[in-house]
Amino acid sequence: MVIHIVGGGPRGLLPDLRSYDGKDVRWVGVDRGTAALLEAGLRPVRAFGDFDSLPGEDVARLQQMLPDLDIWPAEKDKTDMEIALDWAVEQTARCIRLFGATGGRLDHLFGNVELLLKYAGRLIEIVDRQNVLTVHLPGTYTVMHDARYRYVSYIPVSEMVTGLTLIGFKYPLTNCHISRGSTLCISNELIQSSGTFSFSEGILMMIRSSDVSCP
Length: 215
What we know:
By secondary structure, this protein is an alpha/beta fold. It is built from 4 helices and 14 strands.
């Protein structure tokens, strides 16, 4: 099972959600992201949030369409996205993707990245029209060439990432140590059909990006 969560980020940064649909995909709405899902013709299995960003009549309409609408108070100790992600993790999905999690308010963006750190080691992606962001624990990982994403960047999230090795990239590395704040591994590119990255200690963020800005 794959769970796709759609948050309330700017609509212009959402990819075509229908292209991510499939037989084993379960959709989840977060606040006004629920409306974006329904407009795309995708029915969520659950919807979470305080829905304070929607007019009252729209919330009433959602309640009629989605009996399992999970409305939380506006004053709480977790964001709507964290509530939805916590639920998704409990479902033991093999992959979770977050849409509508970038753009707009920077506090929400950084909060959503923190959620990936909370669940580091699980396959969770933040996806928008231009980027795919993942967080990795030490190990060896394969990266397949994807024409949609020319650039591959690695950003240390922990104080230090040690033993970073990049194979199959335009700018290879061997057993390199990079500290938090370094831009050494920004805007690399795969030059083979696949490549690998590995490291021995720390937490590493990988961002795959296209070179075409969103309109």
